[in-house]
Amino acid sequence: MKKLTLKTKEGCWRLLAIFLALIVLFSFAARMVSSNAGNIKISRVTFDSRGATASAELYYPAWTTDEDKLPAVLVAHGAGVTRGVMQGIAEELARRGYVVLNMDGYGYGMSEMPVNDDSGQDKDNFDSKLTPGGMLDALNFVRTLNFVDQTRIGMAGHSAGSRRTASAAMLDCGYLTLNDQLINVLYEDFGQEFTEEEINMNADELAEERLNADQLAHYMDIREETELKFNTRMKALCLIGSSAEMITPLQTVSVAGYEVQRNCQVNFGIVTGYWDFNYIEYPEWETTTEAWHTGSESVERETWYIIDDANATSQKVGLINEASILTNEEFKEAIDNRATRIACYHYESHSKNFFSAQTASDIVSYFEQTLGYNGGELGDSSASPLAADNIVFFWREALNFAATLSMILFLFPLTALILKTKAFASCLGSIKALPTGHFNKKRYWLFNAITVVLTFGAMYYVNSLFAPGLPSSAGLPLFSSWWLTVIFLAIMAVFSVVLVIVYWRLDKKSIGTTVLANLNIKMKVSSVLKCILISLLLIIAAYGTLTAVEYMFGEDFRLWMMAFTEMKAELWALVWKYALMMFPSFLLIGAATNYTVRTDIPEWLDTLIAVVVNSLGVWLLCLVNYISYTGSNALFSNFTSSYGFIIFVPITVYITRKMYKVTNNIWVAAALNALLLSWSMCSCTGYNTGLFPEQTWVGNFFNI
C-alpha cells in the first residue's frame, strides 16, 4: 500500500493507471451487458428530416441482414432528461430480437431543434403537449431500414415522451378503421349510399353485392393499397408513467357522410405507477372508461380489452401474462385490427418507471403480444424467447456506476500530481496543527445528528416543489428541475454558515482559538484562481475519459438519474452559468464539512463518517417513503426528484472531504463540485419546453 500513495509522484502515477484501467474494465463489461455479449449491435445514428440533426442509438441483432424482417420499437424519454434514462428498456427489448431506436427528442441531448418540428410547430410556438417532438420523423427513418418489418412497428414513451409518441400515433394512424376507410372508398369513389346501420357492415361483402365486375376489380386494387397503408402504420403504442389523456378520448370522424366516434387506430397500453405526479385514478378517468367502452365499470388492471367502436362495446381477453395470440384467434385478429387496450399499475413513482424491473417486464410482455415476437416469431420452434421477468439491465447500470466512481477517484491522484508542479505549488494550503481539545465528542455527534435531521428536512421541502412550476428563462434553459438542486444546496449552505458560527463561538469560549485557518479560506487571489484552474483541468480530464469510453465502448458514466454524458459544444457555455450559481453554496458547505475533520481516527473512517452523516437524511427520506407506500399505500413525500440526490450527495461530500485532505484548502473541491454537477445537469437534464438554444458556430465548426 505504500506504493499507492498520493504523497509521491510514483504513487500518484500508479493510482492513475489503476483507476484508468478500472474505467476501461467496467465500461467494457457494461458494453457486454448492453450488447448481450456482442449479440446486439448498437450504433449511433443521426438523421436530418428538416434542417436539424436528430441523434439516436439503434439496437439490432448483430447478424442482421437486409433479408431479415424484424419488428421495431421506438423509445422516447420524458421532459428534463435525455435518452440515457430509457437505455434499460431499449436493451431489454433488443435482447429479445427487436430493432430498437432510442432517440433524443428535438432540442434534447445531442439532437438539435428544427425551425419547424414534425407537427408544424415552430420554436416560438412550441407546445410539448401537441407535438411528436421528432418521433414521427424517427418513425419515418426506421421505415427506411430494410431489415425492419414495416407492418410491426411500435413506440414506447415515458412521461413527456408519452405525449410525443401519442401525438406521433395520432398523426400516423388516424381514427378510421380499415373498414371505415373502405366504406368511404365505396361512398366517395363509387357513389354508394349507406344507412347508418350499413356503415358498420363488412365493406368487402357490400362491394360484392353492389358493384359490377369492372368496378369490383377496381375496388380490389384500391382495397389492396388501402390495406397496405393501414397495415404499415404504427401498430402498438405503450405509454409509460403517464395517463391515457393524450390518446384515449374518442374523436368524431366521417364515415359515408355520417359522424361517428372512433378511437385512434393503434393498439394501446399504459404501464405506470400509483405515484406518477400523485395521479392515482388513471384507469377510472371518464375519458378512459368511455373510450374503452367499459360503461360504469372501472378499467381492470393488467387485463387485455378488445374494443368495438362500431357497437360501443368491449370484451376482456385475459391478464397480461395469460392471454396469447397463439391460443386466441380473436385476440390476434383484434391486434391486427389495432383494437386492443391494456393498463398496468405498480407501486412505484414517476422516476422509478424507467428503473423498474416490473415495468420493463410489462413492456416486454406488451410488445411480445402486439408485435408477435420474442427472440423469433411467437410459436416458431426456432425461436429463443426470454421470459418477461428476465431483466438484466441493472447489471449494466451497476457497471456504469463503478466506472463513474473510478472516474471520480481518478481525479485525486491527478490533483496531487498537479500540486507537485512548480506552477501550482501555491495552491497547497498551509497545514496547521489542530488545537488541543477541539474535538468534543458529545458536541461532534450532536451536530452530526442535527445535520441528518436538517438534511432530511431540506430534502422533504425540495420534494414539495413541483419542478415544472418553477421559473425558467432562455438564459438558463434547462428543465426547471435544476432549481431543486440549487435550492437544496442553498438550504444546506445556510445551515453550514450557522454551524461554522456556532463552532467558532464554542471553540473561542472553550479553547480560546478556532480552526478556521486550517481551511485556508484566506488564500492569495492568484492562488484561488489557480485552484479554480485546477478544477477546470480536472473537468477536462474527466471529460477526456468519457470521450475515450464513448469512442471505445459507446458507454457513459451514469446511475439511474445521475449521469455524466457527452454534450454539444455550445452547452459548455451553459456550464459556467450553473456552476457560478452553485459555487458559493459548495464553498460554504465545504467550510462546515471540513471544520470537523478528525485526526484521532483513521483518515478513511473520518471520510466515511462525513459521507454517511451528510447523506443519511436523503437516504432516510427515501426509506421512509418506501416503507410508507408499501405498507399503507400512502406517500410520505413526493420524491420524484430525490433519486438523483441519493447518489450526488455522497459523491459531492466525498469530494469535499477527500479533496480538502489532498489540497489543504476548500477552494478546489467547491469549484470541482460545482463544475461536475453543472456538467451533469447540462448533459442529461434536458431543456425546458420551448427554451431551445440555437445551434452555434462552435457546434457547427466541430460538426457536433
Features:
704 residues; 19 helices; 13% strand; 14 strands; alpha/beta; ten-stranded mixed beta sheet; Rossmann fold
Structure description:
The chain has 704 residues and is α/β, with parallel strands linked by helices. It has 3 domains: 9-26 and 396-688, no CATH class; 39-174 and 233-389, Alpha/Beta hydrolase fold, catalytic domain (Rossmann fold, 3-Layer(aba) Sandwich), CATH 3.40.50; 176-232. It contains 19 helices and 14 strands. The protein has helices at residues 9-34, 87-95, 135-142, 160-173, 178-189, 203-210, 213-231, 286-291, 329-336, 357-370, 393-419, 441-463, 482-511, 525-553, 572-595, 603-631, 642-663, 667-684, 697-701, and strands at 40-48, 53-61, 70-76, 99-103, 148-158, 236-240, 251-255, 258-262, 267-275, 303-308, 313-319, 340-349, 557-559, 562-564. The protein has a 10-stranded mixed sheet, sandwiched between helices. Strands 7-8 form a two-stranded antiparallel ribbon. Strand 3, helix 2 (87-95) and strand 4 form a beta-alpha-beta unit. Helix 2 crosses helix 11 (393-419). The mean pLDDT is 90.
